[in-house]
Each structure stands twice: as structure tokens, then as C-alpha cells.
Specification:
BirA Bifunctional Protein, domain 2, about 25% strand, alpha+beta, single chain, globular, 14 strands, three-stranded antiparallel beta sheet
Length: about 325
């Protein structure tokens, strides 16, 4: 049975929105713009996506941490390009007269890197590879859309620190492989593209994006990888003692994987006019049909099992 009167390739928006609610993935009727409720199936799939990605990060030596939700205006403004890129998108907590305003994280560079400065003293402390799976917040002023363009974004972000630029480049290649493995498990079709300078991450040397195709002809950016060079390390004074005793400024990378965007890509690419189709690795319900043949009835039983399969697919 179709989830709505709309067909996926004829009216994608109506098809998608109807499917989200009927399949108990997301209810987008929360009375604050850009915020959604993840229902039971949606929450289950988000957790499975998180497990899938975090397993790959752990295999490659990344360590899980949790950092605070907020940073100060002073820390947020330390990297000039970064503040210019995100200043219009942040939510601000006003603590009252005489108190510094707090910035709710749109991403966590300005929250993590003051701590990296304290933790890194020597080349022996490198590389540092950490990640967290959290929600970030961006004050979208354009029209919002469930899973695709929201103000509360469930995602994973990884941040690394290195002694040399060659090690940072090697880390970029590792991040590419991690995301490729995850997207392959999900069966998502995508292109990997280096972003032009005007569209790179604010403060990065360069950025690479994973753009998944969408049935309406648009693209869905599900993940990004950034070589930060020494831009943030200079701003946040992330220095270390080299093997020869001299002082060095660290090189950094960061990369983010949007769980909601990845979920949107899975639904959009695999679903059909009959409803939701999911890869087994994140499916809340899985069915295995096992025909048990009886002598003389093998053909009938096989045909009946095939009929059940056709009903479910």
C-alpha cells in the first residue's frame, strides 16, 4: 500500500513527508521551527547509524569524548574566518547584565581546541584523535525541512591533531575511507567532491564533501572532511615540543557525519511508491522467510513463500 497519493519521482516532498510520519520516523509538527521529534523507528535508526560509524572510528584509534554544549563569545571569535562563517547561524544564551553571552555550538572547534592546548605538550602526545556524537544547533533562516535542513542536527564530529602536514593529509585519506565504508553499508549513492574556496568550511585550508543524490534532482550533503592546516592551532595556541627540542605548531583535521542527512538519503534512495525500504543494518524490523518443505508439496510451499515475499517487498 502506498504511503500517500504522491509518487516518489513525481512529488518527492509530499512522498517524503508522508512517509516520515506514517513510518513513525519523524514528526515534524513540533511547534518550534526547525525542531523535530524522532519517533520510535527514527530513534532506532539514528542509534544504528551511530553504532555503525562509531565502530569504524574506534577501529582507527579515535577516542570517544563528550564536550560542553556552549562556548564563550571570546573563544568563539578567536579564529577570524570561522566566526565570519558561522556568526549569523548561532543561537546565543544571554546570561544577563554584566555577564558574557554564551554561544550554543554550531560545531565544536571553539569548544574542543582550548582543551587540546592544555592536553598537548610534546610530540609524544600526537596524534590526538577524538570524536563525539551529539546534537549541534544552527539558526537556519531559510525554509526548514525534516532531516535535511533543521536547527537541531544529530551528528558525529571527529577532530585530530598532528605533528606534520603529511600526517594530516594521511588522516584525511583515513577519514575518506571511514565514511566510504559506512555509506557502502547503507547502500547510499554519492559523489565525493572537493569544495571550491567560497564553499569550504570556515577556517579550513580545503574541504571535501559527500553529496548523495536525491529523487528531486538536488543533492544531499551527508558528510564533510576538512584539512584545517594550522589556522585553528595558531588561534588557539596548540603547540608542542618537537623531538629536537624546538617548538612546533600543530596541524589539524576535522570531519563531520550528519546522521539525519544520512537517514534522509537512505529513505530517499531506497524507498519506493509502496513505502519504506531499508538496508538490514539499520532496519527496526527484519523478516526472514524459511520454507519448510513437505514431501510432495515442495512446489506449493515454495510458491507460497514467494507470495509472502512479494507481499512484503
Amino acid at each position: 500500500m502506498s504511503v500517500s497519493a504522491a509518487r516518489k519521482f513525481e512529488n518527492f516532498s509530499e512522498w517524503f513527508d508522508g512517509l516520515l510520519l506514517k513510518a513513525r520516523i519523524v514528526d515534524n509538527r513540533f511547534p518550534v521551527k526547525g525542531f523535530s521529534v524522532y519517533m520510535d523507528n527514527g530513534a532506532f535508526m539514528l542509534d544504528k547509524l551511530k553504532e555503525l560509524l562509531e565502530a569504524e572510528l574506534e577501529k582507527t584509534g579515535h577516542k570517544k569524548m563528550y564536550f560542553p554544549l556552549v562556548t564563550s563569545e571570546e573563544l568563539f571569535g578567536k579564529e577570524a574566518e570561522h566566526i565570519k562563517g558561522f556568526s549569523k547561524e548561532v543561537f546565543v544564551i544571554d546570561q544577563g547584565p554584566g555577564e558574557q553571552k554564551l554561544i550554543i555550538r554550531p560545531t565544536s572547534e571553539t569548544i574542543m581546541y582550548p582543551m587540546f592546548r592544555l592536553w598537548i605538550r610534546s610530540h609524544a602526545d600526537l596524534p590526538l584523535k577524538v570524536y563525539q556524537s551529539v546534537n549541534v544547533y544552527r539558526r537556519e533562516t531559510k525554509a526548514t525541512r525534516a532531516l535535511y535542513r533543521v536547527r537541531e542536527i544529530p551528528w558525529n564530529e571527529a577532530h585530530t591533531v598532528h605533528e606534520a602536514p603529511s600526517e594530516a593529509e594521511k588522516q584525511i585519506r583515513e577519514a575518506l575511507e571511514i565514511y566510504q565504508k559506512v555509506l557502502k553499508r547503507l547502500g547510499i549513492g554519492y559523489m565525493t567532491l572537493k569544495r571550491p574556496d567560497f564553499d569550504k568550511f570556515a577556517g579550513a585550508v580545503y574541504s571535501i564533501a559527500f553529496d548523495a543524490w536525491n529523487p528531486d534532482g538536488k543533492v544531499n550533503q551527508v558528510a564533510t572532511i576538512h584539512n584545517l592546516g594550522r589556522n585553528f592551532a595558531k588561534a588557539y595556541e596548540i603547540e608542542f615540543e618537537k623531538k629536537d627540542g624546538s617548538r612546533g605548531i600543530a596541524y589539524q583535521t576535522c570531519y563531520g557525519f550528519g546522521f539525519s542527512r544520512a537517514l534522509a538519503a537512505v529513505i530517499a534512495q531506497h524507498g519506493d511508491d509502496r513505502g519504506l525500504v531499508l538496508p538490514p543494518v539499520i532496519a527496526p524490523a527484519q523478516v526472514v522467510i524459511i520454507p519448510i518443505p513437505f514431501k510432495g508439496q515442495e512446489k506449493q510451499i515454495q510458491e507460497y513463500a514467494s507470495k509472502i515475499k512479494d507481499m512484503l517487498s
